[in-house]
From TrEMBL:
Highest taxon listed in the record's lineage: Bacteria
GO annotation terms (biological process): iron ion transmembrane transport
InterPro entries reported for this sequence: NRAMP_fam
Transmembrane feature ranges: 34-57, 77-97, 117-135, 142-162, 182-205, 226-247, 272-298, 310-328, 334-359, 371-390
Protein name stated in the entry: Manganese transporter
Keywords: Membrane, Symport, Transmembrane, Transmembrane helix, Transport
Compartments (UniProt record): Membrane
GO molecular function: cadmium ion transmembrane transporter activity; manganese ion transmembrane transporter activity; symporter activity
Amino acid sequence: MSSRRTKSGFIIAAAFIGPGTVTTASLAGAGFGFHLVWALLFSVLATVILQDMAVRLGFATRAGMSHALSNQIKNPLLRRGILLLVVCAIGVGNAAYESGNLTGAAIGLNNIAGLGIPIWSCLLGALAIVLLWLGQYRLIENVLVSLVAVMALVFVLTFAVSQPDWQQMAEQLFTPHLSADSLTTILALIGTTIVPYNLFLHASLVAQSEQESPHEASHYRRQSALAISTGGLITLFIVATAMQAFYGQSESLHAGNLARQLAPLLGDYAQWFFAVGMFAAGLTSAITAPLAAAYALTGALNKPADLRSPWFRGIWLCIILVGIGFSLTGTRPLVAILFAQAANGLLLPVIGLLLLYMMNFHPALGRLKNNWLANLGGVSVILLIVWLSWQKFA
């Protein structure tokens, strides 16, 4: 990497706004209007809090999160257990989710040129492989930041022409819902925003940047908060647009009718808006998911976290190829997805607690260690996520 500051925060925004986010936010807006926006706001705030810790950890230790965990946990049995959980949740999970990322982007492009979803998935997978194989961080960064800008433009314009009912949105915003019917959607909104692998990705990106002085940390922290907030705002626009199109309507929302049902709002341009938005969302996740897995797993396996190292390339290549394979067959790896969701559900509170521990006791942190406010925020986030999960599955 060159000495120029990186845009790592916007790569994280690109990572969490994928087809899953578009779908979940659309379902939230269609089914519950603005009554669940509180869950989105909590998710964005929680992501800012946790990613800020990851930024400071990567900056101070000059190592990825897997390396930091391995060095900080002295008990060998506990260390192996945590690293095994990382491998299972992030390695298996990202491989399972990659098919959805490629398929989501392919659905968008197929609405423009009907080559078929399998062909588009292969072409997009090949594009991701070429981009990552080149090993040029600036190129990857510029592509991802550009795609975030495209998503922002598409979804903001979509919302702007939807003639939003501001009064209804305000009323629903201040009458939040938390019920058995809405709990699944609430957890989905939280899960698609607070992504465990983004903590590993962010720490690694900051750790490998060329830092000229200790004061650079404040730049990356501000950038992280701004980028994540931007991603949250894009998600909010998706919720609002789906609310205008579907809330209170007799026909329910699903992937097959999203573009068609936007036609009353967007006219002949509905198909193009939907296609470009899904393409940008899918491609960003199709690139960042294998990239994050490579950083996390090379750290867990104590291998070089270098864009051009054989281990690094081998990990992300396997994940993309698995995603292409499932896309070609048209099947979803349900067992792997369920396993990954369970592992991620366990991983987030565990990693959150370990992150809090490291942010208070890691010797390299110095002035970057947590203060009482950061600790309060981190503990509150973890407790609320655990409580909501308990309410769902108890």
